Predict the structure of Ribosomal RNA small subunit methyltransferase E.
Amino acid sequence: MKKIFISSLLEDTIILPTETTHHVLHVLRHPFQKPIIVADKNGNHGLYQFLEEVDGRAVMQIIEYQKVESSQHQIVLVQSFLKGDKFDWVLQKATELNVGTIYATSTANCVAQYDRKKLHTKKQRWEKIIQEASQQCGRYEMPNLVVDMSVDTILAGETHSICFVAYEDEKGTTLKEALSEKLYKQEDNQRILIFIGPEGGFTRNEIEHMVEYGVQPVSLGHNILRAETAAIAAMAMIAYEVNL
């Protein structure tokens, strides 16, 4: 069954924005008489029936609220900014791979640089990509996108997470090996965080700084992967390991 996401909270009666109404009813051609699942920004879900379309906005009535079981683990991606449409692609695939939080951050070798105004505009576009990908793949809630934090700030807020950094010069420990060891020692639900660098990778100083915070460097395999490939590979490895 199709699902849509709205920015407001669910109520017994809701009115969809014009853009969402047009997309669902006139682009996807979802039958007016067929119920659809609606999710809000807090992860609440409900099965709704279309009642009418007024001035291009759909009025919907609740059929039943739905309970959603949360996963035992949550993947957190910290992705350095990438140039062109590579970052868009990573966001789309991260959403499909059920990542819970995506931090977009600037690191030393980033080619793409954004001032505060441009970053705000970019975030609006990126959130739309995430929403569309979430609806397409049918996931229960959209990833949380954070674009205004430095690596230090992210690490300070993720002190209880299991943290890895993909590093091409790491030869001793693979992500699979490190993850198996960490999960074996943990009994509670965990946030599993993976740092992925930009096109030029992380500098040695950045890696050493992360290690000071307890981040473990890991290998993703024998080949040196492009930044966008590394992100998808790492998330898929983690998702497989924790049965997401």
In short: The first strand starts at residue 3 and ends at 5. The chain has two domains: 3-66, 73-242. The radius of gyration is 20 Å. Helices lie at 18-27, 86-96, 116-137, 151-157, 175-185, 204-212, 227-241.
